[in-house]
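Fold sample X.
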Amino acid sequence: MDWSRIGAVTGVLVFAAGIALWVATEGVFGIDFEVFRQAGELVGADDWAGVYDPDVFRARLGVGNDSLTYFISPPPFAWAMQPLAALPAPLALGLWHLFGVVAFVASARTLGLPDRWLLPLAVMPAVVYNFALGQSGLFFLAAAVGVHRLVVSDRRVLAGLLAGVFILKPPLAIGLALWWLVDLRRWWPTVVAAGASAAMLVVPTLGDRGESWELYWQVLQGRVDDEATWNVNSMSLAEFLKLLAPNVTGLTAVFWIVALVVGGAATIAAGRRWPLDVEIRSAAAMLITVGVSPHLSIYDTGLLIIPVAVVAARASLRLERIVALYAGSLAFAPLLYKWQYDVIGRGSGLEFPALVAIAVILARSVPVGADLGSVDRERDHLIVGR
């Protein structure tokens, strides 16, 4: 009996059923997209104060006064949503989902995944949650895949220019930023290019002496305290630590700093194990992002497709084990939380330990000194030889 396969199928089905039940009972289908759309509408009305006023969104969406459903993305994200905000809400959501499907398929094919993988990947928690809430994870997955292919091809400036789009959602660039800063001597053109393209996206939001960014900073400060009492069902280290100290305000930022330090250490370790293997370093950056980002929920764990695809192309890999760990942890974690909190008032999560296990499996599948993931192999060997 193949327990890995049984675990994978069980995890996927339980998660999908739980999300379907939640959407049906709570009426939250597409709610995050509606937040994005309304932010774009407020920007069109030149109302940045409204964009970053939680009470405005609570009133517009008809949610409770303690709801955390409000806009917390940077100003360029709200500015970019204006075209969809000009459309009727059902049409805008339909186009958003259509574009998401295109981004998902393009990501899988760019990574060289066979078409038979499309359906299994489409029922993964990250994809299911994206469509349930109307989140942006599939678009940022496509951007991450594009950056990955460009760095593997040694197109450093182009990779940086594309990476600049993560100014729309900075937590998803944590792994890349750590990697490029640790290896700044090699990647400085990429960092400069990313800064330039990010600046171009920021410029339209700098009116009124940067009021939008001041308001954004204020809402983030409030969110830090809000998230001390809320768990986002995330695979991140910060969320794992927060579960051990529930409802303790003031510790969230500390957990973020701890996670960032761990991410830096993991980046350095990956550099020592695979110093010249750009493909593996890029894959590791995606794993590190999921593990140490200060704000990354289920819908952004699609980034894990990149390291899985890289390792699967290089080595024998039991994908069922990866899927069982990933989907199972996300499917059954809420039950574990409830049991622990009911019994002792605190507990630990399944998601981050599952991510660590996935990282270990992937790392052990790729031997030290594996083939370089760069077209510039010969020159890199010469540089090291000097």
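Fold sample Y, listed below.
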Amino acid sequence: MKIFLKKNGNFVLDCYDDGGIFDEIDNSIPGTHYATTHFALLGAILFTIKQDDQILLRVKRAIKFHLRTLVDEYRFDSWYYHWDFKNYAFLETYYLLQNNLTDDEKNEWQRALKKTRENIDNRLTNWLAMRTYFVCLRYQLFKKFTDKVKYEIRKRNLFRARLSDGSFDDQKKVSRVIQYHIYTTALLHRIYQITKKVTIKNKFIEGVNYFLQFVDPEGGFNYLGRGQQQIFGYAAAIYALEAAKKVDPKNAVVYQYYLNRLNSCLYFYKRDKHFPLVLNNRNDKEKFGWYDYHHLTVYNAFLGAWLGLTALLKTVTLNESKPNFPKIKVSIPSQVAFIRNENIFISIFGGLPEYLTEAGLTIQHLWFSDVGVFFSCPGGASKEKFGKTVDVENIERNCFAPIALTKKNELIIPALKRGKVNRVNKSSVLASLDYGPFFVERLINVKNEGAYITDVITVLKDDEYSEFRFINVPINLSLIHI
């Protein structure tokens, strides 16, 4: 409780947390995060469809929480305050409900939106994309000239993170995350809806088509980079594919093919009243695959809001058309390679230095027609990168590639290094990585029945090892029936 008014010895108390979203897993309200504003956005979308006054009251209550707690960036939580996530969700909510607000509410909401702070210290591409979209929409609503200037500058900086194959690095040449690529791409569509600029449209479609390469025959795609198998990525991807159907109608039946698989993959894991934060069959309280900053309510609110935005696109379900991908596809600028036929799907990556999840040489994703996913999502949250709360033993060893342990107890792994992938011919890919004490070349040759993997290990300097795994294949024990 908080003293709202004191007069003549009398006190009026206000509940600081009223309207916030309580997380039963963490037994708290994660107020620095964006559950409440995205709950409000989802509610605003539902209100436009159902015209239910009870929904409107809940949305207004949620926004009151946001307005009350943004002043001190939510005093009961010391985590990074997510202005950029909150800002666009709040602005979208205002845009949808402005004609259903009282004059006092409208003035209060407008004042907050015009003066809001931003996470300008966060240079990651998906955060920059949110800031770019926010000022674009705010200029459309309030015609503030500085927003127009900010938009042009931010748009230019945003495109600097884009590679020539259509990929958006989350940090140029440092971190390449597929879920943040598709989230940035989805935000481009929101910008395109406002500006109608052909350059935005083209980069949006190129971003979607780059993303399609990652999708396996069952709809799994979120295996490269931080955020593996999180519903965050599926929310953005489903939105982007539905939007692509409208923007690029001649290829709409192909986008429908991928949509059908992504929806099946997502809804396979749906529980009674929510989705697991990471798509797996573990108990939520285990937080298996979670990072330190994760909250179940936050990601379900985000998923709900973006599925709601998808519904507002008002697309129709089409007959699907299966695309004809080549057996081998290598995107040299982003250093990703895909090997596929009717029986197998393999993804492999060159490697970048930021996260365990962006390891080179290792198989990123391996799917068989008769088995399903055999291996996926190398690495995970390390203690150095958002993995202090949920400690996973041997997370560094989670890779489908050679590893070694020296006599000095130094673990030699393929992560946090830069390697290469190249196409050899129409049926082969060559990946290579310098581990430091040794160098590995991996040849993957696709055949009708599957693929053959040949590793050549060259010792570069003498060392003594207590363990050297020439073949390291992590096994998902939940798939084994004893």
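Sample Y note: The chain has a mean pLDDT of 95.
Also: The chain is about 35% helix and 15% strand.
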